[in-house]
Amino acid sequence: MAKVREFFEDKKSSVSHPTLVDCGYQAVRTSEGVFLQLSTYGSDQRQTQKKTSQTLQLDREHAEQLLRILITTFPDLRGRVTEDLS
After folding, report:
1. How far apart are CA 49 and CA 45, in angstroms?
2. What's the pTM value of the predicted model, to 2 decimals?
3. pLDDT digits (tens, 9 = 90+) for 62-71
């Protein structure tokens, strides 16, 4: 498990990953504040089903940064998100 310290743009080339996994999310309330926790679970080929592979926690500041990154990457989401909330 890890708390995200920093987002930065990775400029190395990359390709789409062939493996599909599930991702659970939850709000975790602690004495430090609220964190958005994202946990990925092993692929279908993994021997132990539904075992957590990686967990990331985002505080409010980093969730806001991630939201900006998502909207920059997928500009059409800006209007859709606010429409879905109403």
Report:
1. 9
2. 0.81
3. 999 999 999 9
